[in-house]
Design goal:
Blueprint: H1 2-10, H2 17-49, H3 51-61, H4 80-83, E1 95-97, E2 104-106, H5 107-122, E3 128-131, H6 136-146, E4 168-172, H7 175-184, E5 190-191, E6 200-203
Antiparallel strand pairs: 1-2, 3-4, 4-6, 5-6
Helix pairs in contact: 1-2, 2-3
The structure holds zinc ion.
Length: 207
């Protein structure tokens, strides 16, 4: 609309109407370029504080080597924003309640989960959750309690659980619920990485 207003104003003088298009496109590209420069400057400014660097550089180096178990699989779906903080060290403000007790997931995953759960309810399917985000300390406790997968237990090595990213939920569903998830989960970005653990679902986002 703003562009039209500019064009309209220029068009008030027939003599410059033809040139107005060229002028307008130049101005527009300059505006876009200026805006991009501003955003880039902002990003660089953030990088200067260490925050941006953390996302771009530390994020990669801190992605832990993944061992099997507790859904620990490929970490390629972990957003750089999260991997920059580290597994089990996601800031509280990035975690959102999913509508079941105090269970939280990374914001976008939480929203997707809520949509999925609502859709399931519409189909008469109930999805509950027994576990969600797990801090590093909670992963340590769980490993002590349930044993490591590599030792026949059910817990991932602390710092490698998908729960540490705020991307995994352990669901409590009946047979119909599991069938519903398997049929519809991917629509909401949730996948079942290991049928050995049918309760464990991960948010991998749009595929
Ligand atoms: Zn799990």
């Amino acid at each position: 609309m703003a562009i039209e207003a500019v064009a309209g104003a220029s068009a008030t003088s027939p003599a410059v109407t033809v040139d107005a298009d060229a002028l307008r496109s130049v101005t527009l590209s300059q505006m876009i370029g200026s805006r991009m420069s501003t955003e880039l400057a902002g990003a660089l400014s953030n990088a200067g504080t260490g925050v941006g660097i953390g996302i771009g550089v530390l994020g990669l180096s801190q992605v832990p080597s993944i061992t099997p178990g507790d859904g620990a699989g490929s970490s390629t779906h972990v957003p750089a924003l999260l991997s920059a903080y580290g597994n089990g060290r996601i800031p509280r403000e990035l975690l959102t309640l999913i509508g079941i007790g105090q269970h939280r997931l990374w914001g976008p995953a939480a929203e997707a989960f809520k949509s999925m759960r609502a859709a399931a309810a519409t189909d008469g399917v109930s999805i509950s959750v027994t576990d969600s985000y797990r801090s590093y300390d909670q992963q340590v406790s769980l490993a002590a309690e349930k044993g490591l997968t590599q030792n026949g237990g059910w817990a991932a090595v602390p710092g490698t659980s998908e729960h540490g990213w705020g991307l995994a939920v352990d669901v409590d569903v009946d047979k119909n619920g599991l069938a519903w998830l398997r049929a519809n989960g991917t629509t909401y970005g949730f996948v079942e990485p290991a049928t050995r653990e049918p309760w464990h679902w991960e948010y991998h986002g749009a595929t």
